[in-house]
Write a structure and sequence with these properties.
The protein is mostly helical. The protein has two helices and no strands. It is elongated.
Length: about 60
């Protein structure tokens, strides 16, 4: 009985790791896709505003 519970738990952890990997892959591809089609000025302004919100000097 104990081995069946342990096997079920490790399978669940494996599935969880796979779901995390799939989510990370889709999020990464989404970022690449969105920035690939975004206007360069919009990307510059977004980066500039992000720097200011973190109190990082940019100019």
């Amino acid at each position: 009985m104990t081995s069946a519970v342990q096997q079920s738990t490790s399978l669940s952890a494996s599935q969880s790791a796979k779901m995390i990997a799939v989510f990370a892959l889709l999020a990464g591809l989404g970022i690449v896709y969105l920035t690939g089609f975004a206007n360069a000025t919009a990307l510059h302004n977004a980066a500039h505003d992000t720097r200011h919100s973190m109190a990082f000097p940019c100019h």
